[in-house]
Structure formats: C-alpha cells, structure tokens
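Incident log entry.

Two folding requests arrived from the same account within the same minute. Monitoring flagged them as a possible duplicate submission, but the sequences differ. Recording both here for audit purposes.

Request one:
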Amino acid sequence: VIPYQLVLFDCNESFDRLEPRLGAAKALAVDIETSNWWSPAEERIEIIQIGFRESDQVKVAIFDPLAGLNPERLRRTLELG
C-alpha cells in the first residue's frame, strides 16, 4: 500500500503554497473533469486533480475552479520540461 494524501485547493492562497512543490516534482499525473464536453460553447472545467510524489508519499492536489481558482494558474507548472 502506497501512503497518500488528498488536499483540496479552492483559493489562490492555498495554490501559492503548493505551486513550488509541484514545480519540484519529477513527474505529475493530471486528470481533468469537465461538464458539457459535447458543446464547446458550454463546456467548462469542473475539477482538476494533480498527483505527484513527495518523499515517500503520493500527494493528490484537487483544484476546484468553481470556487474561483483560475485553472490558467496551472499553465506554467504544466509546461515545465
């Protein structure tokens, strides 16, 4: 069994604390849930989950764009080589 931790990030301040940890991760796993995917005009991101390993534990950051967290803030982290 791999130890893990789930953390909900629903405000910019919590993301500010997480961003450097994501940037330091060797690999990220990303899952995006959307609604209305069949209609580009109405499609929207409902939740974003990012998994990464930190020490001997798997962390899963859950981002809630519906709570006001702008998913665009993830762009820099996800574009890192």
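Request two (distinct sequence, not a duplicate):
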Amino acid sequence: MKQLAVFFATALSVATITPSADAHHSFAAVFDADDPVEFEGIVTRVDWLNPHVWFYIDVESDDGTTENWAFEMGSPNRLQRYGWNEGSLPPGQRITVSGSRARDGSMKAAVTTVILPGGRELFGAQDAAPQ
C-alpha cells in the first residue's frame, strides 16, 4: 500500500512539473513559410499568455460560411517590444492578418503582420519579424 502511494505521488509530481510537449515548437515544424495566407476578419478572442499569444478571427469563406481561424504570435514580452499590448485586438474589431499557414492544413497560421483599422501595421514577433 505504501509503495502504491509513493508511486502515485511521484507520478503526480512528474505530471505537474514536466512542461507540456507542445508548449514550444519549431516554427518550420508547424508552419509553412512557403504557404502564405491573408485574411480579413473579426477578432473573436485573444489569449495573451506565454509562451505564445494566440488570437482568433471569424473569416467569411468563399461559400459564405464563417470559419474561425487561430493565429499564433510571439511571446507577450516580445510583442510589447513591437508595439502590442493586451488591448491591441479587442473582440469585434475588423483586422487584416497575413502569415504562414499550418502544415497540417488546419485553420491556423503564424502571424507575419496585422493591419488594424486606420492602417496601423503591427508585426507578429515571430523569428522572421524585422528587428
């Protein structure tokens, strides 16, 4: 019984302190720089969290249906150096996004630039962003 308790305590400790395998990844392993995308859509959600900020926009597809696309950017700290803050993309705002599509064909991409209403352009703070 004591060995079983030690086993479960150890397993719980390892599970809670081991970083997630998908928490950080190689850009080239997930996104295809040779498959650029550009969308105009309405911001639905922003997850301003480490290790990468994600935001989601509703995009009208060619057949008139709405697709919700996910866009990955750099870390919150790096984004702030590029002029971003948590309020840069309020839900309901119409934006234009360009980036590199996910290799798996899903509705997600790594951001290159975001053009805000009024024409202000912000970089996605991935490794390829201007320094």
